[in-house]
From TrEMBL:
Residues spanning the signal sequence: 1-18
Gene3D superfamilies per record: Immunoglobulins, MHC class I-like antigen recognition-like
Naturally occurring in which organism (per UniProt): Paramormyrops kingsleyae
Domain spans labelled Ig-like: 198-287
Protein name: Major histocompatibility complex class I-related gene protein-like
Cited PANTHER family: CLASS I HISTOCOMPATIBILITY ANTIGEN, F10 ALPHA CHAIN-LIKE-RELATED, MHC CLASS I-RELATED
Length: 331
């Protein structure tokens, strides 16, 4: 499911970096054919990249993920269940076509559908569909602009099918997406509209075996997961080919982290390294310099003996206290 996760973040962030009044509703459906321990069919609905509901094919129910609410009632349950079955029907056909084209008669294969609608300044700004098979995108449709692209002829809709899909989306999915998005943003605005800016550090770590030092810029604790990071050397951006860029990762507390690193020689380390981080908008820009002092690898030989000595002192104090208490009890 990595492909869909990356797409979700890219689609979501492309709007938030452009406007703080942009919001996104996404549906990610995964259909698995073959023997697997995972549910054969699951759909996850997210608002601004926060999971709010999901459908589990094993129990055939829609379940709330709004842990911050005491009432877990699913609004418009029957209509959402109809949409889930519509997804399932289409993805079953999609999976059969792709397996036949790829000559896949055995094994586990994953089909995915991704739908996103976005409100920008409270107006629908994008409605797209993506289809993927075994991690590779197969088709993309832009409903608002009536654009379609597919590497699979069976999914390159002709004009009559496209007109039918346009009608279905304009009468059902488009108004439903907008109404659900607006409703959730109003009900759960304290969670869905929150802004948490990143904490940024630029650190160094020696690698004695290679004779080089790793310089890392770490931004963590931010939400939403939209961020631009640039490592600079003497005030100039370092070429991408020299930098190892990590993906945006969840922290587990609803915030995210990302890092960029490069390895330099002792001579290069004498130069000035800084990191600029932009979150949400160009105005929210942070610039952080490389931390002075020894790196973390150098500090551990100092920290470990100190900690060991503190533990010994505490143990001696506890033993002496217990002996004293025992003597007083004997008297």
């Amino acid at each position: 499911m990595m492909m869909i996760s990356v797409v979700v973040i890219l689609v979501f962030c492309s709007f938030h970096l452009a406007s703080q009044e942009s919001h996104s509703l996404t549906l990610s459906a995964t259909f698995i054919s073959g023997e697997t321990q995972f549910p054969g069919f699951i759909v996850v609905m997210k608002i601004n990249d926060i999971p709010v509901e999901y459908y589990d094919g094993n129990i055939e129910k829609i379940v709330s993920r709004r842990y911050w609410r005491s009432d877990n009632t699913i609004e418009q349950y029957d209509l959402k269940k109809y949409i889930v079955h519509d997804f399932y029907s289409y993805m079953t056909s999609f999976s059969d076509v792709m397996k036949r084209r790829s000559n896949h008669t055995q094994g586990v294969h994953v089909s995915q559908e991704f739908v996103a609608c976005d409100l920008e300044d409270d107006r629908l700004s994008r409605l797209i569909l993506l289809y993927a098979y075994d991690g590779e995108e197969q088709a993309k449709y832009d409903i608002l602009h009536k654009e379609r692209k597919s590497i699979v002829p069976e999914f390159l809709w002709n004009q009559s099918v496209l007109d039918a899909m346009q009608s279905l989306f304009s009468k059902l999915y488009q108004p439903l997406c907008v109404s659900i998005l607006r409703s959730y943003l109003q009900q759960d605005k304290n969670i869905l509209l929150r802004r948490v800016h990143p904490k940024v550090r630029v650190m160094k770590k020696a690698h004695p075996g290679s004779g080089r030092t790793e310089v890392t810029c770490l931004a963590t604790g931010f939400y939403p997961p939209c961020i631009n990071m640039t490592l600079l050397r003497d005030g100039q951006p370092i070429p991408d080919r020299e930098v190892t860029a990590g993906t945006v990762l969840p922290n587990g507390d609803g915030t995210y982290q990302q890092r960029r690193s490069l390895r330099v020689s002792d001579e290069e380390l004498k130069r000035q390294y800084t990191c600029t981080v932009t979150h949400l908008s160009p105005e929210n820009k942070l610039t952080v310099n490389l931390e002075a002092g020894p790196d973390s690898a150098t500090l551990w030989p100092i920290i470990i003996p100190v900690l060991f000595g503190i533990i010994i002192i505490i143990a001696v104090v506890v033993v002496c206290w217990r002996r004293r208490v025992a003597k007083q009890g004997a008297i």
